[in-house]
Specification:
Length: 113
């Protein structure tokens, strides 16, 4: 299971993150996301654990913990393939759904319903 870990300090290392999660089971991989220009942590990362039950235990135990004076956020990582849904359950990426059936003709300044 892929796990998102957020609100990490710049000092957190991949080894440190791995050690935190290994207390709950086997860790396949750890990746802290870095700014490619400054080579500094963006404050979040991902941990891959093969066992869903161990991953769930880690999420429940670590979410909201104080690590290096910051409360970390730990939850299931979104695969990125899922589309964001608004509260009505409709696809929020379509502007006609997001703004109702209203559309705009930008060139003429006319609006239609």
């Amino acid at each position: 299971m892929n796990i998102y870990v957020g609100n990490l300090t710049e000092q957190m290392t991949e080894d440190g993150l791995r050690t935190m999660f290994e207390a709950f089971g086997k860790v396949e991989s750890v990746k802290i996301i870095k700014d490619r220009f400054r080579d500094r942590s963006k404050g979040f990362g991902f941990v891959e654990m093969p066992s869903n039950s161990e991953a769930d235990k880690a999420i429940k135990a670590l979410n909201g913990n104080l690590v290096d004076k910051k409360l970390i956020k730990v939850n299931h990582a979104d695969s990125g393939a899922k589309k964001r849904k608004n509260l009505s359950g409709k696809d929020d990426t379509n502007p006609q759904v997001r703004w109702g059936r209203q559309s705009a003709n930008i060139n003429s300044g006319n609006f239609t319903s």
